[in-house]
Structures are given as structure tokens and as C-alpha cells.
Description:
The chain is an alpha/beta fold. 53% of the residues lie in helices and 8% in strands. The radius of gyration is 18 Å and the shape is globular.
Amino acid sequence: MGVAGLKLASWFLCTLMVDAFKLLDVGPPRTGTQTMHEVMKILGLKPLHTGYEAESVRPALCGYLFGNGSLDDALAVFGGYDAAMDEPAMLMYEEIMAAFPEAKFLLTISDAESWFENYVELSRELRATGTISLKAFFHSLPRNCSRMQSWGCNFANPSPEDKDTCLKSYHRHIQRVQDVIPPERLLVYNWSDGWSALSHFLGTRIPEEQFPHEDLVKRNAESHIEERLKA
Length: 231
């Protein structure tokens, strides 16, 4: 669907949203999306992390991206929020760009090899928890809607070919984001930049709070493993 079609399809929905959507983090999972969720809250935004709310929001997003779902249903996911991050919201940048002309976009810098190995390590830790609920959770989501399967990624005992496919998808996404989103609407962000670059980009105050670091998924997995070892 072209940009004109996207604008027409989403115009009525957007007029009903009380707060205009302000920011989409277009970085993939494991590039600091959980930390960015905390950062956005400190900056006064109401962010949606689609990993935390996976069962309620991912079906509509993935239905649109990979199936026969409607754009209106996908955009409705962002109603009531003014920022979003994680899979698969980060793939919605063209739709968000058309539906919310004032929205901005954030791309966090992450080394591709380190990103892949981080995901493999997390996958190993999650499998080590041995929780039935975790398996049920993943199986409850639509196909291509978790663990970057839409990129052809396999983080559980990946072969060299699996890794190559995944990294090519990663690089392709990073490049396309920068090709498609106008530079004045995109901040390519390095975590070492701290508050200053983000606050300037969003037009917010520079917080007095210490810059956060959050990895709830990994922390929960490690905690579960520790409990099993104590048992």
C-alpha cells in the first residue's frame, strides 16, 4: 500500500486518538528496548513495549504485517500510547510515518555480531528455565511474531547459515530504516550519548535521574535458574 493509501486508511482512526503518537524505536529486540521503555517513562511519555504486552498487541500487528489483518487494527494498538518499541512494532515505521506526520523515530546503535550472540545467550538461558509457560507463550503468538522469526533468525543452536541469514536481515533493516525515514525525523542513537541527545531530539528537559538500565527478561531467566539450583 502506498503512502497516500496509508494516510487515507488511517486518517479517521488517528483523529480519534487523544494523544498524538510521538516516537517509535525502530531497533530490534535486544538492542536496549527495555531500557528505552524506562527512559521514555522518565521523559514523561507513555511507552508501549510490545514484548511486555505481547499476547494483547502482537496478534493485531503481526496479522497486518504477515497476514490479512487490517491496518486500522494494527494502528489501534498504539492508541493511548505516545511511544513504542520492540518486535514487531519496530517494523511499522512506514505506517507510523504516514499516519503520524509529527512522529519521530529512534535507531539505537548495536554491533550486529554482539546482538546475535546476546540473543543466543538469552535463548539458552530461557531454555534452561524449563518452564512450560514460556513454551506455551511462544506457541500462543502468531507465526513470525516472536524471536525475530520474520527475519529468518534461529537463536536456538543456530547453524552458520542461520546466523548469516539473520545478520543479513538485521543489516537490511538498519539500512532501510535510514534510507526511508527522513534524517530530520530519525535519531541514530548511541547509548553513550545519554540523556542529552534524546532530550534535544524530543524537545524535553534533561532529567536529573540517573540513566537507567533494564533487562527484565534476562533478569527473570537468571533468577529462575538460581531458584532451580537451590531446590
